[in-house]
Specification:
Elements: E1 5-8, H1 12-24, E2 28-31, H2 38-41, H3 60-69, E3 72-75, H4 82-90, E4 95-96, H5 100-107, H6 109-118, E5 126-128, H7 135-145, E6 149-153, E7 163-166, H8 171-181, E8 188-192, E9 198-206, E10 212-214, E11 218-223, E12 226-232, H9 244-257, E13 263-271, E14 277-283, H10 293-296, H11 301-309, E15 323-330, H12 337-347, E16 352-356, E17 367-375, H13 378-391
The structure holds adenosine-5'-triphosphate (ATP) and magnesium ion (2 copies).
Length: about 400
């Protein structure tokens, strides 16, 4: 009998987990509000008697019921109730992968940074912002880290929504940052600005047995703190840039080795001018910088996540193509039109695969889908993606 996998969250990552699950005959139960979330749309519940649970993925009662109904519980989002996950595992209702403690640690980006630093892993300098910080507190932080200060929410952050660069200590700027981030008494921390030359990400997967594999490093390009484009393999030239791929993979594997549990992890990094690498943050789940692995690698990040949590051997992480790019389809307003235009061009582009997530409402900043393009060379990839980017008026990258 195949083990049933329960997923907290029914968004696009769940949707992309559902594809290999269907191929491998793995029964899924997806917990999210509504009956037609992106993941539920593409996955039938395992039997006529067992529908996907309809409830918030943060709801303790729903999580407990799901834990009773599945063998292994996993997450497509880290903003879940980690204490309940700890409980259901303690009570033996099911296993949880990755470990609830890992999810809990990662949820608080400040604690995550402290953990990495304590394990000797390079991160940008950082510290907590005192509650009710005064101008003097901000001045003290400025004296240590300089300007701009990257101010971040400790919890519930995604797609840059918990970040606000503080460019000066003027009353107006401080008020703006606090207004953006600290509503509802959210705890904050700051990071010194990292003047990176590139952003890099590595997906690392570890199965229950402890076997580890990592994918080749990719270059990620963000705009307004949200991932836009991802290129693989990573190419960098210049002094100190030798072996960046190998070093990025080693650093990512070392960081993941400090965390408990099985599954795939997305490790975001900054590549500095001297070739050194710092970790920005880690996601304990499939990650946007690994979407290209569906078309461009021997085994996708989604399949490898399922293999990892089900104690199966890990699949090869090797690239199958010389070059690839992934373009996010992000809403610019409530109109799908720019995305529809880009998709139309993609259908006419050799090597392009269209992914639309089935979200009914388009909103500014919302990830509606992505396009992966594969090709024989970087030059070919660039010429293939140009018209697509043009169609969504996103060419300033
Ligand atoms: P995600 O959607 O990846 O979870 P997030 O909301 O958790 O994102 P971060 O990963 O902390 O946000 O930051 C988003 C982006 O902001 C980074 O990818 C990078 O481009 C920029 N950034 C973050 N921290 C710094 C820093 N210390 N210095 C300079 N730029 C930064
Ligand atoms: Mg994050
Ligand atoms: Mg990030």
């Amino acid at each position: 009998m195949q083990q049933t996998v329960g997923i907290l969250g029914g968004g696009q990552l769940g949707r992309m987990l559902a594809h290999p699950a269907a191929l491998m005959g793995i029964p899924l139960l997806i917990l999210d509000k509504g009956t037609a979330t992106p993941a539920k749309q593409v996955s039938l519940a395992p039997s006529p008697h067992q529908a996907h649970p309809d409830g918030a993925f943060t709801s303790p009662e729903h999580i407990r019921q799901l834990a009773r109904d599945c063998d292994v519980l996993t997450v497509e989002i880290e903003h879940v109730d980690a204490a309940v996950l700890e409980q259901v595992e303690r009570e033996g209702l099911c296993t949880v992968q990755p470990a609830p403690g890992t999810i809990k640690l990662i949820q608080d980006k400040y604690l995550q940074k402290r953990h990495l630093e304590q394990h000797g892993i390079a991160v940008a300098p950082f510290d907590a912002v005192p509650e009710g910080a005064t101008v003097d507190d901000w001045k003290a932080l400025e004296a240590r880290f300089g300007l701009p200060l990257m101010v971040k929410s400790r919890t519930m952050a995604y797609d840059g929504k918990g970040n606000s660069p503080l460019k000066s200590l003027s009353e107006e700027d401080i008020k703006h940052t606090m207004g953006t981030l600290a509503s509802g008494g959210k705890k904050l921390y700051v990071e010194g600005w990292a003047p990176f030359v590139k952003e890099v990400a590595v997906m690392v997967v570890r199965n229950v047995k402890g076997d580890v594999k990592s994918y080749d490093a990719v270059e990620t390009i963000h705009k307004d703190s949200i991932l836009r484009v991802c290129f693989a393999p990573l190419r960098v030239q210049g002094k100190g840039m030798l072996d960046v791929n190998r070093r990025a993979k080693e650093l990512a594997e070392r960081a993941v080795a400090t965390l408990q549990g099985a599954g795939i992890f997305g490790v975001e990094m900054f590549l500095m001018e001297d070739g050194s690498l710092m970790i920005n943050e880690i996601a304990p789940r499939p990650h946007n910088s690994g979407h290209h692995t569906i078309e461009a690698c021997e085994t996708s990040q989604f399949e490898n996540h399922l293999r990892a949590i089900l104690s199966l051997p890990l699949g090869s992480t090797a690239l199958r193509v010389p070059s690839t790019a992934m373009l996010n389809l992000i809403g610019t307003s409530d109109s799908m039109q720019p995305i529809t235009q880009a998709v139309q061009v993609a259908y006419e582009t050799a090597g392009a695969s269209v992914h639309l997530y089935g979200k009914t409402e388009c909103r500014k900043g919302r990830k509606m889908g992505h396009i992966t393009v594969t090709g024989d060379s970087d030059a070919q990839i660039r010429s293939r993606i140009r018209p697509i980017l043009q169609a969504m008026q996103d060419l300033d990258e």
